[in-house]
């Protein structure tokens, strides 16, 4: 029997780039799958909104003290697999 548990949390974040800084909201998504003896966890992080719309480029995303490098391309943020 396989069990699947999905969990989503919205966390506060800070985006920083060259001469740019704003607050943002980040989605932390986790999926737990498993059976009788084996389990797997998949976790991802994605920016879902920000106070300002920055231009494409490389930014630092800080979430609860952890810093991630993210690249905005075509006005879109990537999904980070953790």
Q: Mind summarizing the main beta sheet?
A: 6 strands, antiparallel
Strand order in the sheet with the most strands: 5-4-1-2-3-6
Number of domains: 1
Q: How many helices in DSSP terms?
A: 0
Number of strands: 6
| Quaternary status | single chain
Description:
- There is one protein chain.
- This protein is mainly beta and 82 residues long.
- The chain has one domain.
- Helices cover 0% and strands 72% of the residues.
- The protein contains no helices and six strands.
- The chain has a six-stranded antiparallel beta sheet with strand order 5-4-1-2-3-6, with no helix packed on it.
- The chain is elongated, with a radius of gyration of 15 Å.
Could you list some keywords that capture this structure?
mainly beta; elongated
Secondary structure elements and pairings:
Elements: E1 3-17, E2 20-34, E3 39-50, E4 57-63, E5 66-72, E6 79-81
Antiparallel strand pairs: 1-2, 1-4, 2-3, 3-6, 4-5
